[in-house]
Recover the amino acids of this structure.
């Protein structure tokens, strides 16, 4: 059973940066595509970014393009989300997820494993 654990959340002022990490254990990390989702209070969980198994292909939500960067280190079984120029609208619980699929990564259904989430709060 694969376990994913997020870290790196916190409180930051608008315009600041945070780097989230997601460590995976208990399985073959290299066989998983990885994604980040977020859920703001009172809203549905939404897709943020994903990276395919080989790390060469990434996809982003329009709302974060140009500000967030997803990357992975297969040697360390870790995926990262570098978040720059943060806005109050980015405030949410951020979830990391792993999928055996290489497709449909902007949807929740392909993901097999989910973390517990890490809180990101951006103050204005």
């Amino acid at each position: 059973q694969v376990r994913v654990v997020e870290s790196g959340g916190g409180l930051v002022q608008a315009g600041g940066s945070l780097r989230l990490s997601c460590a995976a254990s208990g399985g073959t990390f290299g066989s998983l595509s990885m994604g980040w989702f977020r859920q703001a209070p009172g809203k549905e969980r939404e897709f943020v970014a994903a990276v395919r198994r080989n790390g060469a292909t990434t996809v982003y939500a329009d709302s974060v393009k140009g500000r967030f960067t997803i990357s992975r280190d297969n040697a360390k079984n870790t995926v990262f989300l570098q978040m720059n120029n943060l806005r109050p609208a980015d405030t949410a619980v951020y979830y990391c997820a792993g999928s055996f699929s290489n497709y449909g990564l902007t949807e929740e259904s392909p993901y097999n494993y989910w973390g517990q989430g890490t809180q990101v709060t951006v103050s204005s």
The radius of gyration is 13 Å. The mean pLDDT is 96. The longest strand covers residues 18-25. DSSP finds no helices and eleven strands in the chain.
